[in-house]
Amino acid sequence: xxxTATYLGLIPLFPLIGAVVIGLLHMLTCKNxxxxxxxxxxxxxxxPLLSFFLAVVVFVHLKGMPAEQRFLVHNVFTWFAVGxxxxxxxxxxxxxxxxxxxxxxxxxxxxxIYSIGYMAxxxxxxxxxxxxxxxLGSMLILVLGSGPVVxxxxxxxxxxxxxxxxxFWSEDTNNVLAGNKAFIVNRIGDLGFVLGMSYLFxxxxxxxxxxxxxxxxxxxxxxxxxIAVCLLLFVGACxxxxxxxxxxxxxxxxxxxxxxxxxxHAATMVTxxxxxVARFSFLYSEFPVAGSVVAWVGILTAxxxxxxxxxxxxxxxxxxxxxxxxxxxxxxxxxxxxxxxGIFHVFTHAFFKALLFLGAGSVIYALHHEQDIWKMGGLxxxxxxxxxxxxxxxxxxxxxxxxxxxxxxxxxxxSALATGHTGIWMIGVFVAGMTAYYTFRMIFLxxxxxxxxxxxxxxxxxxxxxxxxxxxxxxVGAALAGVLNLPGIFGGKLIVSHWLAPSLxxxxxxxxxxxxxxxxxxxxxxVVIGIYIAFKKFGxxxxxxxxxxxxxxxxxxxxxxxxxxxxxxxxxKGFGSVISxxxxxxxxxxxxxxxxxxxxxxxxxxxxxxxxxxxxxxxxMVIGLSLMSLxxxxxxx
Amino acid sequence: MIQDYLILSVxxxxxGILGVxxxxxVFAVFMSIELMLNAANLAFLAFSRLxxxxxxxxxxxxxxxxxxxxxxxxLAVVILLHxxxxxxxxxxxxxxxx
Lengths: 637, 98
Hints:
A: mainly alpha, two-stranded antiparallel ribbon, B: mainly alpha
């Protein structure tokens, strides 16, 4: 069993090999004789499934170890060593990363299988799976990295794959622009991450720059630097996990194929920020001020994007805003130092949000790429499996009692209340009601009532089994995952929290059972009210309302994109054009032009010696030889 | 004693250089080069006598052999040049391009 640590390097390697093999096959054959889709599908699923298998092996191995020693470290090679900075390409499996590992590989595998159905007959079938495998490999490096630098490798890798996959259907300029937006906004976050890492190294990096050494040295960091590091790292998390003010890219990222939205922009990549904050729990728990900032940004993001989500028409946009909103909850959780609650919400969210996205994918697939919920309706009869599974997903997302989302969200809200963040708790409960409302608005408009566009309704049909089976598996997960972290009042033992405890530094706050029950009742009431209002308004079939007032304001997302455009993008473009029109030709270029002018002039001056007559060159030669002889005879004497 | 030989050698060599510098006919330039070679030979032989060794002789023989080979090549080149331009004026051949 001592070889288990060496498996860690293999876990990211399998999907990466898959990506290279599929990518090469696609490049070599796509022009003339494309290979069958079945071959690509099989190749694409091998890597993720093998990684999942190894993840289970690692998990079981960790489980067999004593709780306080659950760390497996495998340093593959020394990447670079400069002065104090010694970076190993190392992988670390501890309770936190092994949990992430399990669900990332599990959901990743399911979504790969689903994609075989969804992407069928696509011209670039091979390219898609190459990118997907590359994504999974990068994500696993991110999760398994033994230090911030290795994590950053994965962090950038998933960013790249996100960009590639958002603009996958690159014939449409809008998709390309959405990809660019995602990439550029993420760069802003990445700058924060890099600065945070640099400060961290400057402060306590000399004793080793991997998590275990950093954790040991964390108490020696000075408060000012520590808070700066926390906030800078959080800027990185804001970019990757779509928080205020950098959330704008995620809704646009829905331009990519739906499995991509499910895997990258709901279940895995966007939760990397939460994972990172939990990974640095040893820092954030030292500085509650930084944690409060994280929590407030999170809960405000949850509120804002829930408002946007209530007014969207595009089924994927609704889900995108709900993702941003749920990510806000997660940050609220890790911000109030309830790291295990935040990570548990990441875990349950991965199930129900992947399920909802894949369900939305089935609907879109069945309706031949119709995404406007006001053109759907009554699909319950046509797509029974999709309906049932999505209903489970919606209940879980809304936080309906006993579904997975209920337990994880409630854990976060209760932790906020118990740590004295009453404002966050109140907003959180309110947003829970809004979540229930917009989720069931979508469900009712899509599946209930009468068909609004008869033609697309008539052509609708349930997608093939390769797509519905992953839905069913995820639905089981979405319904039951909550059991894993059943709180005390339901007779549970908080299994996930206890499992994560050795990786995290957190204090479980305690309030009386009474307060816990009251808090729970408050959020249940909010959820029920939300669902009731949605039912009243949309349950019996509703017509598209007139488009005005606050609804219009909300649909256009408070014009945030336009404001960003006016405040940042346009001035930046103006700055660029000033540089290109005035500064560059007159300042920068003049140096270059001066040196080229100098060379030309020097050439003209020396040209007179190059007469072309052999005898003149002979004279030069004799002069040169004479001078040399003269010099030599001088130096001998 | 040795000075006389060397002075003669220098005079011959200088005449050769002067010829190379000033004459435009390819043959004249060529003969001037031969003159310089022989000036060098003379110096070699003079030194050889002075030091009573055979090294100078050997070198002189070598220079003559090289000069003969060079003459064969150079005459061929001269013929080609003449075929090319119909002239034997060095000023005509002032560009590298044919």
